[in-house]
């Protein structure tokens, strides 16, 4: 297939194969980790607060256990901790959801016969169990390596070098996709190209060693690495499996109208923490149903709005209709059907406003396409919350 690079996406380097991490890169393991550790620490009168997540992401199981045992002053060794919590984790392994874009990425590379390896610090047996719950994954990887198959886990480059050896390619022709700092360090030490997809929020600035940092797998552009591009973008939008969220409209920050001149109808995030953690921050679009007013086109942001430096992840829909009055407290239901772009910061307020209006135009046009317009009649938009 012949394809042209756009000036905006110049070729970084030609690669021949892709090596992927698993937990946090392809699978959404953060919430399950938190649930298990919360339940486990109760017996010691301790409370998991999530602060250690930044210390243990990407480390080997033994290193993570040692960190938790030390930080919480537990009366057990790292080995004892692992033996106790591993059965608790294993109960959930087939409930771990694929991160947005993971299935799409694996299918794309597989269909274009790009050799893929899976290289994770987790034990090989655990990896096999996890991916067996996702149809088509296991057979898509030419090589699968667990942390128990090498002398040293990430940040040592050994696991990536072994993957390249088994793929029979030079390390310099491999593209690593990783969510953690130890993984990025390992990839660069192996002299490979590395795309970082940080799994923890507001951590992108730490990934200076990576060759590229992206917000989510939805934002990967294979053509930057000489690989076949995705062909599923339509009119500047990426179709998604629809997802649903609803609740009463809150006043939120009030800045939509006051600062931006854009009347957002903010939703409370109460009860949606898990759903929000599963969807990357960014700009989405779809249909909005107001219980007493009808169904309208909608574009929305999910995230921390870097320009305003939010401390919490928010949901800020903009209903693309001129309303004569506020409707705070009214029931709002959203069907999200597509993705436009990742969340970004802007040097000026004017730049942010211009981009939001560009998002509006893209959403308005796209929602007229049959692919998206059919969801206007979704019963969820007209049912009570």
Short note summarizing the structure:
29% of the residues lie in helices and 19% in strands.
Helix content: 25-40%
Content of β-strand: 15-25%
Shape: globular
Radius of gyration: 22 Å
Q: Structural class given helices, strands, pairing?
A: alpha/beta
Mean pLDDT across all amino acids: 88
Number of helix segments? 12
Within the largest sheet, what's the order of strands? Answer: 3-2-1-4-5-6
Number of strands: 11
Sequence stretches where pLDDT stays below 50 over 5 or more residues: 1-7
Report, as a whole number of angstroms, the end-to-end distance: 48 Å
Which sequence of SSEs, written as H and E, runs from N to C?
A: EHHHHHEHEHEHEEEHHEEEEHH
Strand count, sense and barrel status of the largest sheet are: 6 strands, parallel
